[in-house]
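Q: I have 290 residues here and want to know how they pack in 3D. Can you give me a structure?
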Amino acid sequence: MEETGCKRSEAELALSLSNNNLEKAIIAIGFILKFITTFKIKIAFPKENIYGLMHIVINIKTSEIARFSLTFSRNPAIYEIATSMDWFSYEKAIFSARLNSGAMEIYTKKTEKNLKIYIQKVLKEAIIVSQEEISSILKNFFYPTEVFMEIENEELNLTQFKKLPDYNLRQNSTSSLNYDLGFIELNVTILKDNNGKPIKKTAEGDTVLSTIIDERDLTHYIAHLIGGIENGNMCPVPAIVKKITYKNDEFEVYLNYTSSIIGIAKVKSDTKIKILEQKHQLWWKKILPW
């Protein structure tokens, strides 16, 4: 019950289905309980020419907001992003849109905090959490501004919510406008080490230590995803060197954090850097590098 937030009767059912094996019961309850609802929302203020995307994940049993993200933009193209895509693709679309031209960073940050507090307060008093209820909450929050919106919800069990979709199989086929929803570039630095490896000898596949220095508002969210924040502060994280280019006495190093997050660091040619792990080479390439 503590692990999953289920009721006693639900816990007893899961135990009976798994022959009183606690570990199997916890797995079973994740499939049984379907109390996570995600709301994928497109919103527009026609008179102000402002367009937005919003994603709210709610635990229906507790009326708590599990995830909340939004973006507002002057670019009407973001309103064409389909709400029919899976919830995680939609959330990635929101954060991708926050990096594109027309994004209203200050307005988004100001609205995000106040809106989340307002929605959470109303949800605690709501009897049923539905599309109609979410629509009413949003219209009341933005009143008297005229609001158009499109809402689609997706019900998930606990296991579906904790296990992210497979992007190799489902790569945003419903998205238009050629948005690359799964690719984000960040400005980063690579940690120096006087006893380390010269940048000139660094190879693709080496693992280095890097710190995110990107100042965009999305950075803290991404850093949290890849483990780059500790006690609220940025901290070094390992990354694999994907590509290295040389120009104007400077190396541009592309680092691979995940399949969708790339870091770009510029390093002077005389710099030595911290290498955590070197790419293993075939023995004959070490002797005959050409």
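Q: Anything worth noting?
A: The chain has eight helices and 14 strands. The longest strand covers residues 237-247.
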